[in-house]
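Please fill in the sequence for the structure shown.

STRUCTURE ENCODING:
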């Protein structure tokens, strides 16, 4: 049963060592993520599942202790999913889940088993829904940390350049996440999300299915588009 969810953006720039001199520009986003994880802890889950974007469609499963690295961004920093040190062999965490592992370590998340699932933008809405239902059907009290960014096309200098469809898309996502509206998230246009370089579409649709038939209520904690990319933080509890 899903008892709570935290939705956070996952740009590597969220990690101060990666952002370097630009780190203060995302202080508000970091604070919102910290607050969101506090809501997860308060729900007293039996297990935490971290769902985030991946390069391949997936789903790809990562065990507790899986390693993530920010060396590709010029920073000698490793993180471990739900652990202080590595305890799992296998593929390195994709960047979104690495940011999630960093957030968990930053907030001192301990005492609850953690595993990760990577889902890519090629994963269909139907398969996201099936995955979300499977996660929710696990025994005990489950919490989700859901990672992903909205469009990367909000300004001329954005990674995907300016697209007039981006702001309305992001506004609907922000409304749906703030209102804990699974139906609206499930109905997101997969093709449009890919065109707008939205990394969060698949993770959000996993959340939508996991939260179906629950009475969770949503709170929007943060919504902005620094660097022309939409970042949204919210909680469902």
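FILLED IN BY: designer on duty
SEQUENCE:
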């Amino acid at each position: 049963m899903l008892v709570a969810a935290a939705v956070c953006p996952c740009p590597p720039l969220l990690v101060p060592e990666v952002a370097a001199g630009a780190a203060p520009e995302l202080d508000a986003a970091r604070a919102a993520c910290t607050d969101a994880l506090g809501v997860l802890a308060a729900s007293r889950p039996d297990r935490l599942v971290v769902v985030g974007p991946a390069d391949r469609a997936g789903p790809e499963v990562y065990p507790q202790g899986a390693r993530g690295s920010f060396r590709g961004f010029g920073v000698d920093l490793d993180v471990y999913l739900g652990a202080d040190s590595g305890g799992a062999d296998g593929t390195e965490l994709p960047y979104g889940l690495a940011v999630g592992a960093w957030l968990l370590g930053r907030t001192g998340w301990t005492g609850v088993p953690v595993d990760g699932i990577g889902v890519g933008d090629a994963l269909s809405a139907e398969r996201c829904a099936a995955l979300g239902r499977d996660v929710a059907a696990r025994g005990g009290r489950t919490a989700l940390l859901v990672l992903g960014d909205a469009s990367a096309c909000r300004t001329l200098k954005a990674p995907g350049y300016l697209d007039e469809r981006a702001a309305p898309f992001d506004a609907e996502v922000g409304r749906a996440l703030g209102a804990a509206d699974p139906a609206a998230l499930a109905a997101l246009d997969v093709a449009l999300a890919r065109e707008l370089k939205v990394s969060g579409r698949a993770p959000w649709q996993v959340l939508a299915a996991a939260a179906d038939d629950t009475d969770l209520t949503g709170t929007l904690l943060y919504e902005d588009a620094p660097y022309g990319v939409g970042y949204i933080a919210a909680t469902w509890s």
